[in-house]
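The passage that follows is intended for readers who have already worked through the single-chain material. We present the inputs for a multi-component assembly, then the predicted structure in tokenized form, and finally a short commentary. You are encouraged to pause after the input and sketch how you expect the pieces to fit together before reading on.
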Amino acid sequence: MNAATATAGPVSAGSFATGFAWSFARDLTLAIRHPGETLLVVAFFVLVASLFPLGVGADPQLLARIGPGVIWVCALLAAFLSLPALFAGDYADGTLEQMTLSPHPMPSWASGKIAAHWVASGLPLTVLSPLIGLQYGLDPATLGTLAAALLLGTPILSLLGAACTALALGARGGGVLLALLALPLFVPVLIFGAGAAEAQAAGLSPAPHLSLLAAGLILALMALPFAICAAIRIALD
Amino acid sequence: MNFYYFSSPATFYRLAGTMAPFFFAAALATGIAGLYMGFVVAPTDAQQGEVYRVIFIHVPAAWMSMFAYFVMACYGAISLTFNTRLAAMMARAIAPTGAMFTFVALWTGSFWGRPTWGTYWVWDARITSELVLLFLYLGFIALANAFEDPRRGDRAAALLAIIGVVNLPIIYFSVQWWNTLHQGSSVSFKGTSMHVAMLWAMLLMAISFWMYTIGAALVRCRTIILERERRAQWVRAMT
Amino acid sequence: MSSLEGRGLACSRGPATLFRDVSFRVTGGEWLAVRGPNGSGKTTLLRCVAGLTRADAGAVSRDGDLIYSGHLAGIKDDLSAEENLHGALTLRAVSVDAGAERDALARVGLEKRRSLPARRLSAGQRRRIGLARLMLDPAPIWVLDEPLTALDDAGQALFGELLARHLERGGLALLATHHDLAPPPARELRMGV
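Having made your guess, compare it with the prediction:
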């Protein structure tokens, strides 16, 4: 037997647009007022990506060869670092409950949150990647492909990461559990994202890789918000 | 027939206890037959010699790893939709066996890879997605046990299992979509290009692994039932 | 006429059953007090009624919008009182003009502090933002868990006034509270018995 809540009579008109705009604006405002999270992501990305040339030596051919992969891994790890904060604050101060009870459809404000999260983490990484790529001696076409791949891939990482974070809300084992859940799911994105730039660097067309990333993004946008909402409901139960 | 009767943990406990030995026996019988067919009857491969025989473990284990995950995800979906306890317990019961078969598939694959392709490991599409499957199993087990309230763990892990189902078509179709190390499928519903003894050996081993998985899941589920229902009357009456 | 009804609700936390076969009915103009010792399931019951927690058995039905407030204040530290209030109302799809929000904040005594980030407010002042929300939200059903937490005497009196006005307008409330409130409850629901 399940408890069902039946309602009758006028219900406040909730709308997808309002819900999305509400959480997007709110989370961006919070990110601007508390830029620590964004700075951490950016700093980590820049620092770690800059450490590799120091570690493997300055051989230009080697650097150009490993560049796309290394930059992608750094972006992935940086994106991963920003995940725990996605729902933790709202969960702790009770706003997540209020959002769940809102008449606006749940996927609307959840998507808004994730969109704001991407603007504060994935987007800076994408914008900075050509600069980092210069350190590795990548040519302009490869830099462009790398940025395009990151542009398509980082939203997927945000969506997948949000699903894992929501699942692990309130769990013991903190960061390690999240890594175990999120990093394996990130792997296909990494493979196609780095593959696109590597193909371009090798003179081949990156179109297949980029198309697959785009398809993955569309699939993630359509399917994951519902999974994320289910996970949040489970967390609040 | 009153289905709710069978979904009561107490009833299932007894039922599973009676059925499990039959599954283990079937697993043993088909396993012996399959190994005999594979290692004794099946002819030596023209190109790979005796080493190829590891496929009689490798391929059925890989099939089982994917099938077990699918069944686990189905139980997860049932437990979330109908809010039942037993479906969630069955999902948890399958996970370790599924993880084991995934590991066996990867490990035997690497044994096969060394003499055949010259390397223990390569990041081809199918191997990588099988590795992701192993991590999905481990993530499922970790997530299920990460909460104070086991019901919360059940639900979170069930959702994870459902999300991860998208990996199964990737593993299956990866050899068609990409030019990678793995050969195309030799066994399909339309017919097969393999020698009949090899085919029989693989099918027998697959059935053996399947019977074993069911038996192991039933036994593990009984343990989980005892743990969860330890305060119930019928459990107390047993101890 | 708004109403809120629970039939045969049961919930467990982990292996222990919290409550079983809980039923109640509240109609417009009255409020029901949920009372009981700590750990008797009051919070869980209210969360089931609000729809946050799924009950193991039973059903909840209501006629009218519901507003819920639990142990957590639902206030973001980095937003100001007026931003929090406006955000909470937008989230509930309630549109009020800025003047009405200011008046509500003034009524709860946060006029001067309305632009400060909420982290600079005391716990009681944060709760008062919640009172302002109750003032402006037209939802007829209130499900509140210990609404007087952290409020001083003036705050508690203010809540009593708000409750009285809410009931006069045909609203109803399900409150978990160990306090005695000015408009007395129509009935009591004892948990943990």
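Commentary: Confidence is low (pLDDT under 50) at residues 1-11 of chain A. Residues 17-236 of chain A form one domain. How closely did your sketch match?
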